[in-house]
Amino acid sequence: MNNARKIFSRHKPSVGYVGEILLRQVLKNLLPKGYEICQGFILVGTIMNEDKLSSQCDIIIFRKEKESVAYSIRDLKIIRASYVIAVIEVKSSLNKDSFVKTLEAFEKLQEIRVKQKFVFVFGKVSRRSLRRWFFQYRIPKNCNDEFGVMDVELYDWSDIEWLPKSILSLESHNLFLLDHLQDENNDYVGYASYKITDKTNVEISCLQEFLANVMDMLNGAFELDRNNYSIKDGFSLYSFC
Predict the structure, then answer these.
(1) Residues 6+ apart with CB under 8 A from 60
(2) For the whole model, what pTM was predicted?
């Protein structure tokens, strides 16, 4: 994946496209028996029309059964919602607009009971940027800034059902895992920020931890050495206005 990023560094759409192919292949090799992976759309109900389709999903993990695929043409498939296990959005880079579109898509997927959602980004994503984008997605209209006078809890425990379970920034060597965060007085919905270092304290890729996070929901076997993990500052999905 790092080679693909270097080769297509001047053509970001190609990085994302190649990344999807590579990630799908890696996941395909890891999936337990009875599961399959594809790109395509999710169908709600049984009638095939545009109103019943989700937006296009980069990676869909679904239970492989006789009725799971409603339509297929080459690598593109339409999967019936009741068979979908997870969706992964793959981005060459991430900015506010693309992240907002991803969150909008994830909220809609939750309406059709797709609970497991992940974001894979080749480029750099900072903790500060993610936190700001989350708040800007839910910030009340009467707020002039991210910080102010009155406490406002923008996300609640019910939001865990549709928020991305994890967000990987491959280039930043950073993985954000949805979790509950605590301080002296309260606990909050938020993301723990993981960085992994080797024995010389040099940062290394969080890709394996991301894959393990995806495999956990399938009870897939994925051995991982967690001895060198370092948890940096996370962020709560809580703001002031």
Answers:
(1) 37, 38, 39, 40, 42, 77, 79, 84, 86, 87
(2) 0.84
